[in-house]
Write a structure and sequence with these properties.
single chain; 2 strands; disordered N terminus; mainly alpha; two-stranded antiparallel ribbon; elongated
Amino acid sequence: MNWSYKNKQNGSKVPRSSLYVEGLADTQKRFRRLPKDIKAAADDEVRAVARFVANETQAAASTRAEQKVAKTIKAQKNSVSLGGGGRKQAAGNMALGTEFGGRGRSTTQQFRSHRGTQGYFFWPAIRRNSTKIKEMWDEMLERILRDMNGG
């Protein structure tokens, strides 16, 4: 977790989750230079991976609070977003508390016990499906490379 982001309203530190993938920036640059037809096919496949991740994380939600947050999980063009419903800051707090827990402050008693970075449903579902997600990416990249090299 990167704790450098500060809440603008009260200055408290808010977790910002990030994942570093070695070589991703270079790969993204190369994708931007692909012919339009190959790029369109790749976009469709990336969306399919994002839909799979969104569906699996939504299915992992078991409590009412998790299910409410899960309804806000959306497959984007090249990612998966997680909100919380309602006002923007309250939605983010709801999503974070539901996923990682709370109980350390009087304002987080509605959540289950804090689990550090393990999570309750979103990240465990991603970890549980990481092999399948990697396979989907590998297959997609192989198809793109075949298409780029004439089939």
